[in-house]
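Duplicate of #3305? Posting structure anyway:
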């Protein structure tokens, strides 16, 4: 038994040492600094949005102990991700794990560098939240998120990064944003400086569908339109107050979260099918997605 525990202990220590080459200190707020992960050798750093309170005079502490200036490339409050560009090169980026390689019950290490030295804490993957339509991939663990750990990596015992730790997305719950979501946000921030969001121009609330329609669609609720903005994509498409949206671009819509999930930046400018219920009948229309300013 002692040999098994020693082997596991050595593996975890090795994983921390390996990923530590990619973990930095991020000093972008007045209190305790937070952590970040080297994304690329040319100085791109991924960290948490909520720890970047000061957008100028950001300092990044590198694994070799040196400190450099960094500029904010962009941020996304919805995913709690920010991207910095440090005045450094020749940095070491760690490999990232695919969501399919992460399972409930796996051991995971939260690693941070709020000071000059690495810190780590151990836990278990307790839940996974994968929503491909909304490009939201999260892993929930029972690791203790010590002060300054936000923005640092969640690491598997093989040394691969499972996600970016966040203590702000769900209070009291340790979450990490996984590879597909991080990649999507980073690419958008690098290209646009922000996350592009689709726009319909409607106010909605969940509503139960009439029984015959619910049986026809195999869906109990939809998104009842309670307001339509003038000159909005919705008005131009012929959507009216009292219509109930039940799908958009082939994705079921039952509430606001479903609708926002489909309104991704990749659909801006695209004409997509929208299915509505009007007067107890199902109708198919087309709407061109706008961009939220």
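Output from current build:
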């Amino acid at each position: 038994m002692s040999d098994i525990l020693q082997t596991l202990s050595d593996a975890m220590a090795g994983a921390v040492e390996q990923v530590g080459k990619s973990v930095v200190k991020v000093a972008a707020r007045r209190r305790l600094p937070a952590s970040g992960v080297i994304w690329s050798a040319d100085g791109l750093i991924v960290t948490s949005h909520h720890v970047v309170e000061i957008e100028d005079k950001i300092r990044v502490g590198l694994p070799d102990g040196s400190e450099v200036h960094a500029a904010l490339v962009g941020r996304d409050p919805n995913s709690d991700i920010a991207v910095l560009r440090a005045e450094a090169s020749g940095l070491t980026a760690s490999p990232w794990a695919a969501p399919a390689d992460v399972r409930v019950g796996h051991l995971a290490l939260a690693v941070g560098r709020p000071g000059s030295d690495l810190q780590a804490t151990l836990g278990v993957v307790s839940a996974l939240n994968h929503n491909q339509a909304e490009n939201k991939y999260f892993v929930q663990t029972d690791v203790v998120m010590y002060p300054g750990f936000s923005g640092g990596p969640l690491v598997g015992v093989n040394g691969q990064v499972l996600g970016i730790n966040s203590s702000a997305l769900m209070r009291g719950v340790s979450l990490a944003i996984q590879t597909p979501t991080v990649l999507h946000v980073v690419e958008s921030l690098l290209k646009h400086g922000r996350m592009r969001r689709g726009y319909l121009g409607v106010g909605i609330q969940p509503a139960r569908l009439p029984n015959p329609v619910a049986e026809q669609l195999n869906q109990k609720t939809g998104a009842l339109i309670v307001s339509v903005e003038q000159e909005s994509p919705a008005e131009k498409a012929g959507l009216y107050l009292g219509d109930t949206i039940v799908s958009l671009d082939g994705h079921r819509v039952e509430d606001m979260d479903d609708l926002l999930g489909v309104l991704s930046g990749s659909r801006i400018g695209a004409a997509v099918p929208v299915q509505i219920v009007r007067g107890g009948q199902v109708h198919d229309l087309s709407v061109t997605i706008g961009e939220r300013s």
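Confirmed duplicate; merging threads. The first helix runs from residue 2 to 20. The chain has a mean pLDDT of 92.
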